[in-house]
Amino acid sequence: MKSVILAAGEGKRLLPLTSTRPKHLLKIAGKPLLEHCLDAVKASGINEVTIVVHYMGDAIRRHFGNGEKLGLKIDYVEQKAVLGTGNAVSVVEPYMKEEFLLVYGDVLFTAEAVKTVIAAYEAEKPTIAMAVVPVEHTESYGIVELAEDEKNVKGIVEKPKNSEAPSNLANAGVYIFSPEIFAKIKEISSSPRGEIEITDAISRILGEHKKIIAAKLSRENWLEIGKPWDLLEANRWMLDRMKHKIRGTVENGAHIIGEVTVAETARIRSGAYIEGPALIGEECDIGPNCYIRPYTTINSKVRIGNACEVKESIIMDKAHVGHLSYIGDSIIGENCNLGAGTITGNFRLDGGSVKMVVKDALVDSGRRKLGAVLGDNVKTGIGALLMPGVKVGCNSWIGPGVVVYRDVSSDVKVMLKQSLEEEKLAK
User: Fold this and answer.
1) Tens of pLDDT along 371-395?
2) Are 251 and 262 in contact (CB under 8 A)?
3) Is residue 323 among the annotated active site residues?
4) 18, 114, 209, 340: which has the highest count of C-beta atoms within 10 A?
5) Interatomic CA distance for residues 230 and 44, integer angstroms
6) Gap between the Cα atoms of 56 and 248, Å rounded
7) Tens digits of per-residue pLDDT, 326-341?
8) How far apart (Å, rounded) are the C-alpha atoms in residues 269 and 308?
9) CATH level 2 (architecture), domain 2-226
10) Which helix (H) or strand (E) holds 89?
11) What CATH code would you report for 230-414?
12) Which of 24, 36, 54, 323 is catalytic?
């Protein structure tokens, strides 16, 4: 069996992080999201993968090549424009002559999840087997209605209110399709947004009374990534599952507690205190006298200065966190340079959940702790303060002593103007 991974989308909800890379190359626990997907597919026993690309597709091609380094055979198909999941599936028709696994490239899933769907297909030989997963808030998902046998799919309802949903089982974006799906995609019309959705093709197959089987997954085997704070949850998810090993230099007087990965070329200076699970990448320089708290990933060539504290955050490649800084529940982009005493606030004064602007709408993250999201190449001056939930676009500067209360666009400079008084001292 072959696999298809959809990796064409831009990921606008993850801006500013996706203005310089496709979302599928965002690193989670030290590896790109798409690599975690490929690892799970390989571990399920599938070695041939076709990746559908569009936005920054060349970056994905360059990173993974033909898949040889991962022990896979990878080829690529270009989706000419992002016109929905149905359109994305249609472009692989010339290459899929038998049943195939299809997965969305913006979700994390385990090999066990893939094996569950494959087993459901092989047991019943339906037209489609699809993974479903229980969710708390149905308004954000396509919700699957099952027959009385709790196995056969009756229908899919897009984003119903909790009170109106036929179940709490969401479409998890992991399928086994027979080649029949291609003919059904050709029969459906575009949505009001001009997109062709795979769920419409599935509904057409249901209308012909053909068998579609639901394979139930647990939330332990599946995680969606759509908004910036989902990356923090995904980082927790992967750090808990990976095998950790200390290979790098750990000076006398440094303390490492719990499951921690320290890459071979990393250096942990005396007085550093690291609590796992955590990951310290290649050529990192940590400390002295800093505190790295659980569920933190520090990627390659990062410098964390003296007396810093980093809590449950992702620090991307080549970032520099100056001494006396605090980074909490935040994502710091590549090549950022944070001046001494930079603080990311991660807790509202009223104790409420933190909100963040996502695609021009204010969205409740549901998290009581959420800091800042910085794009690549951001600089902050000494004593800069970023309030909970703010985003700073790529290449922007935040001046010394500035308090950032709202999002900052890319390529701008924000400076604090002071009004000074000067008078002679009395003799």
Assistant:
1) 999 999 999 999 999 999 999 999 9
2) no
3) yes
4) 114
5) 25
6) 34
7) 999 999 999 999 999 9
8) 13
9) Alpha-Beta Complex (3.90)
10) helix 85-90
11) 2.160.10.10
12) 323
